[in-house]
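call fold(seq) -> tokens
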Amino acid sequence: MWLRVKSFSFFNEKKSEGEFKMKNKNKLVLEVLSTLLLFFGCSNGQEQNVGKLKTEIDFWIGDTTEITGIDISHRQGEIDWPEVKKQRVSFVFVKATEGIDYLDTMFAKYWTELEKENIIRGAYHFYSSDDDPLEQAKWFVGKVKSFENVLPPVLDVERKGHKNLTKENFEKGVLKCLEEIERLSGKKPIIYSSPNFANSYLFDKRFDKYFLWVAEYGVEEPVIPNAWQTAGWHFWQNTSSDKMPGINTAVDHSKFSKKIEHLIKLVRN
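ret:
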């Protein structure tokens, strides 16, 4: 499914055995700047209904009934994106940086490929408590360069690091990093963490103003960390061992808690 952000016309395309056959029907003219929820299911393995909302920016949307995505790093190696699209993937988070001097070796390649494939993309930074939080924010945002028309920046917080660091000082460092990322990128970051880690080290109520990407596997619903009891989760990484055609290794798989227009709003805001 194709979705183009901001408005204008809509038409169906039918994809059969890898070929798109365009059908100009059900044309609409929209004046609103928000996006629409689109619904087109897959009929079988040979034929798939595909939608396209024509405006400024094309985005590939794998499914509008359940919004799912993956996150990747250099460990995934070469990826066949057209094949991945067939698996109803609607968004991809890419590891960009870690600490103050590590840049993932595949970040630039993946970032460019995702843009060419019109897949909604986001970048994440692995937080290290051993490094200065402000310098980490500068390193991360500087390597991604622009967060325009992509998902908000993600701070991956899952390791405490220095044994002598108190929980309170760890938390202060994370908050500093988040605030600096927001200042530099112009977007409020997302926090990635597990319920156990978040309840141990991210207990300040100020964290709930940042969207939560929670990681918990083998459950029907994730546990909501204490700081996000009111806000809940936006993304849920529900497995780290998804097998997906187009990717030669196991890959992390996530769900989005809301509808497609909310995902697009995160990209646009």
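The CA atoms of residues 101 and 197 lie 25 Å apart.
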